[in-house]
TrEMBL record:
Similarity comment: family membership: Belongs to the NadD family.
UniProt xrefs under Pfam families: CTP_transf_like (PF01467)
Function summary: Catalyzes the reversible adenylation of nicotinate mononucleotide (NaMN) to nicotinic acid adenine dinucleotide (NaAD).
Enzyme category, top tier: transferase
Residue ranges of domain Cytidyltransferase-like in the record: 6-164
Entry EC no(s): 2.7.7.18
Matches recorded under SUPFAM superfamilies: Nucleotidylyl transferase
CDD domains (alphabetical): NMNAT (cd02165)
Keyword Oxidoreductase attached: no
Descriptive protein name: Probable nicotinate-nucleotide adenylyltransferase
Keywords on record: ATP-binding, NAD, Nucleotide-binding, Nucleotidyltransferase, Pyridine nucleotide biosynthesis, Transferase
Catalytic reactions on record: nicotinate beta-D-ribonucleotide + ATP + H(+) = deamido-NAD(+) + diphosphate
GO molecular function ontology, one term from the record: ATP binding
Amino acid sequence: MKKIGLFGGTFNPPHLGHMLFAQEACLAYELDELWFIPVNVPPHKESDELASNKDRIDMLKKVTKRHKTFSVSTIEVEREGPSYTVDTVKLLKKRYPDVMFYFLIGGDMIDYLPHWHRIDELMTLVTFIGTKRPGSTSASAYSGAVELLDMVQVDYSSTLIRQRVAEGKPITYMVPDEVEKIIKERGLYEARRSPSTD
Ligand SMILES: Nc1ncnc2c1ncn2[C@@H]1O[C@H](COP(=O)(O)OP(=O)(O)OP(=O)(O)O)[C@@H](O)[C@H]1O
Ligand SMILES: O=C(O)c1ccc[n+]([C@@H]2O[C@H](COP(=O)([O-])O)[C@@H](O)[C@H]2O)c1
């Protein structure tokens, strides 16, 4: 049976923590493919700094191009409303009944699993592959059902990348080169000027 990893995320922007997790999960679980699934509306996040769907998809498409097992699925951006994972997985299982799906989550999301929409149903549909992240406990009522991938913890987050861009600090070595290029060319995440008071 074909094994496909689903990596859902806001990817605002994608960074090297995401990429390393994707690589290591493919290796450890012998995944045939890994699909990055950018969310349309994050189910649990306030998002004033959210780059457009196009910008986030373009960044992911560029970084996945050089890996033959990685690709980008637009299944969530094509759907209105909050991007609940259970809805996405149900649709994918209907479209690909002969595939075994895995869903990748970082430690913060392991902690948050009890709050996911229809989590008990989702648990019956996919195997979660989780990995620890600095600052998360990676433990929740559901963590026993998550396959824990042991890999080096990368203390990068998209929030950190956005902050550094806004402060004019370099992000080289924190994001793939292709992502850095798009962020620069399109002026993403640059500090917004405060309105003039005079
Ligand atoms: N450094 C990391 N190591 C392991 N997993 C990560 C890392 N960064 C993000 N993830 C996981 O990738 C998925 C998508 O994360 P997301 O795109 O929201 O990135 P983020 O860095 O957490 O973003 P933000 O800082 O904007 O909240 C989540 O399951 C998250 O836990
Ligand atoms: O379905 C839910 O209720 C749910 C709640 C929180 C997060 N998720 C999914 O988990 C993935 C990572 O979320 P995020 O916000 O860390 O990018 C992304 O695909 C989200 O849609 C899903």
